[in-house]
Amino acid sequence: MREVIDFLISHPVISTLVLIFGAIGLVEFWAFRIRPLFIPKVEIDSVVDELIARHGPRAEEIAYINEDRAWRYSDTFEQGKWRRVRRELWRRYEAGEWE
Fold first, then answer.
1. CA angle (65, 54, 85) in 5-degree steps
2. What's the predicted TM-score (pTM) here?
């Protein structure tokens, strides 16, 4: 372990890059995995109900399209939100609540 610390001290550029990429990774993890969990379930349910009413059996495909669009525009929070919507659609499908 001491060798790693000595290496990082003697190469400050590498240490800086590791810290920058680590910080970016934490921010992206927060925006994609953690922050969407704070969206109330009622809001997710209303989006799911609207998708089912409007698109029927294509609801999951539409949710996937929206998730992909968020990914393409680098909107990590929206991507996480649509991932939650797709999981709820899948849960309802597995429970037999819609086709």
1. 45
2. 0.80
